[in-house]
Design a protein that fits this description.
The chain has 225 residues and is mostly helical. The protein is 50% helix and 6% strand.
Length: 225
C-alpha cells in the first residue's frame, strides 16, 4: 500500500532488518534509508540510488511469484507482483510529478495509470465476474477515458480507490472455489472464467507497467526494478 506524506509517497511496509546485510535498524526509519543510500553510493549503483534517495519503496519488498505452486497460487502471485510494481513506479513522487505527461506526444501519466487500473479492477472482478452493481468511478458513457485525464485530479483519492478495488478483487478471488467459475462480461454477454480474468489482469498490468517504466524514467531517471 502507498501512504501519502505531504507531497510524497512512500511504501508503508516497515522493516526491522536490513535485507542485504541483516543488520537490525529502526522500522521504516532514517537509519535504514541512510544505510541503503550509502550502499548504493559505494557500489556506484545509480539506479539503486535514484530509488532510495527520495524515499522510494524498496524493490526487495516486492514478492516474486513462486516457481512451483498451484495454478491459483501462481496466477494470484503474479498479479500481486504487478500491482506492487505499479506502486514502486509511483513511489517518492510529488502529485505534480504523478500527473505529468512525461512521454509526449502520449497523454499517459502515472496517476492516469493508477486511476485506469482502479477502473479495470472494478470492472472485471466486481461488475463482470461477480455481477455486482459497480458503476465506473470516473468514466461514463459520455467520457470513457476520464480516468486518464488527471489535471486537477486528487492523488490521495486515486490511491485510496485503487487500493480499495485491489482489496475487493482479492476478496472475490479468495471466496471463489474454482478458477473454472464463470461470470458474464456485461458488454458482450459472453461467459468468462475466473482463470481468464486473472490472466487478462496480469496482461493489463504488465502492459501498463511497461508504460510506467518509460514515464518514470522521463520524470527523474529512475529505471528498472
Amino acid at each position: 500500500m502507498i501512504a501519502v506524506v505531504g507531497d510524497r509517497h512512500r511504501g508503508s511496509r516497515a522493516r526491522s532488518k536490513d535485507p542485504r546485510s541483516g543488520a537490525v535498524v529502526a522500522d521504516g526509519g532514517i537509519v535504514d534509508s541512510f544505510l541503503t543510500t550509502v550502499r548504493a553510493l559505494l557500489a556506484n549503483d545509480v539506479s539503486e540510488l535514484l530509488w532510495h534517495s527520495s524515499g522510494l519503496g524498496d524493490p526487495m519488498d516486492r514478492q516474486n511469484a513462486p516457481l512451483v505452486g498451484t495454478e491459483r497460487e501462481v496466477l494470484t502471485a503474479w498479479l500481486d507482483y504487478h500491482r506492487s510494481t505499479l506502486e514502486l513506479k509511483c513511489a517518492g513522487l510529488t502529485p505534480d510529478q504523478l500527473r505529468l505527461q512525461s512521454v509526449p506526444p502520449s497523454t499517459l501519466s502515472l496517476l492516469g495509470l493508477v486511476r485506469h487500473l482502479a477502473e479495470v479492477e472494478r470492472a472485471w472482478f466486481r461488475k463482470n465476474f461477480e455481477g455486482e452493481v459497480a458503476p465506473p468511478i470516473w468514466n461514463s458513457d459520455d467520457d470513457r477515458y476520464a480516468d486518464f485525464r488527471t489535471e486537477g485530479a486528487d492523488v490521495d483519492e486515486a490511491f485510496r480507490q485503487w487500493n480499495a478495488e485491489c482489496g475487493r478483487s482479492r476478496e472475490i478471488v479468495a471466496a471463489t472455489a474454482s478458477l473454472d467459475a464463470e461470470g458474464i462480461q456485461r458488454r458482450t454477454g459472453a461467459s468468462i472464467s475466473l482463470r481468464w480474468v486473472l490472466v487478462h489482469m496480469i496482461e493489463e498490468y504488465a502492459r501498463h507497467n511497461g508504460h510506467a517504466d518509460l514515464l518514470r524514467e522521463r520524470i527523474d531517471g529512475a529505471t528498472g526494478k
